[in-house]
Amino acid sequence: MDFAFDARTEELRERLLAFLTEHVYPAEAVAQEQRAALDSPWQTPPVVDELKAQARRQGLWNLFLPDERYGAGLGNLQYAPLAELTGRSPQLAPTALNCAAPDTGNMEVLAQFGDEQQRKQWLEPLLAGEIRSAFAMTEPEVASSDATNITTRIERDGDSYVITGRKWYISGAMNPDCRIFIVMGKTDPGHADIRRQQSMVLVPRDAPGLTVRRAMRVYGYEDHYHGGHAEVVFDGVRVPVGNLVGEEGGGFAIAQARLGPGRIHHCMRLIGMAERAIELMCRRAVSRTAFGKPLAGQGVVQEWIADARVAVEQLRLLVLKTAWLMDTVGNKGAHTEIQAIKIATPRTVADILDRAVQLHGAGGVSQDFPLAELWAAARTLRLADGPDEVHQRSLARRELRAYR
Ligand SMILES: Cc1cc2nc3c(=O)[nH]c(=O)nc-3n(C[C@H](O)[C@H](O)[C@H](O)COP(=O)(O)OP(=O)(O)OC[C@H]3O[C@@H](n4cnc5c(N)ncnc54)[C@H](O)[C@@H]3O)c2cc1C
Fold it and tell me: Atom 22 (ligand 1): residue with closest C-alpha?
């Protein structure tokens, strides 16, 4: 068994490490200051655009896209250690490299299912990092973890589709640079196959009838760096029929295809977040003294650090195995493992971050350390892209099948 990455991955890793140290970490405080001085907290701080230009010049750009026509042409196993590094600075690094959700999933959808006109109009500026995008599926009125429940209507009217519905937690939509929404709704609510009722359409931000109503919070955070999570109303929004993505009735299948890579990307970045938490824990443990000895001398602290290290190594191996399966047998063949990492990673990393918060005392819950916000992000991923229980249910069913 060979645990080494190939030469190209190693070389990119070295370059990315240097980029993070030289440019991204120092920009964290700058971005915070700049954001405070902007007219609106949803605008992109100028330092982020500088980071993007730097990353692009250095070839650290669109690394997530395996299709060489559009991106770096890396497999999942090659991208995994790079995405992990970006998780060390989750608020800046993924955006700097044009590898941030939800744009990544949206670019994949457009590359895979968009027609030539759609790719020209929306994929090209997304690939160039000139605009941002959002994916609108979840609705406040229905249990949206079951996507067959969604009620938004996409009705054909001559050469147009008319969209009516209300969505929430639409990531990225508060940022004015978010110019395009991929919206999932029902074109045929009466279809006998409940997975053929849905379609996806492209809706430009400035379409009449589209209102970005408010920013939803995540444990009290507004997540400015991710462009927030908005409530969005579509009130009779009219778009040309050419804005349909793929075919009518194909929305459910596209949503499924979109989530496989998205889930593994989140898990890769979460491991980077856990590594940052361990680093902060160790630094704090050796630098603070209580009751006559450094915190690092307390058995309980040593246990937290050891358990965190073991858990991260276990998670990384499972994520890498999943990445390898996705590359070799495809996303469908890696379905069980994708579910396993989506169940295991957010909750384990949230636990590690919780211990890191504890070790930092009041500082841990403060804005002076990234831990509280990272914890909220990790905890949230037990809901986003499908709650734990939905993945557990499906994984258990598969496991039980052999015994029935
Ligand atoms: C920060 C954040 C960002 C998000 N970004 C986006 C986005 O960009 N676009 C978008 O469309 N959506 C987004 N979402 C929404 C997210 O995908 C949904 O919250 C998720 O799919 C769950 O849907 P729901 O909130 O309607 O919960 P529900 O479907 O109402 O489920 C509630 C709970 O019921 C339980 N449950 C449900 N099904 C089962 C089952 N089969 N077995 C056992 N228990 C079950 C689970 O505990 C679940 O948490 C985001 C959410 C968050 C928090």
Answer: 145
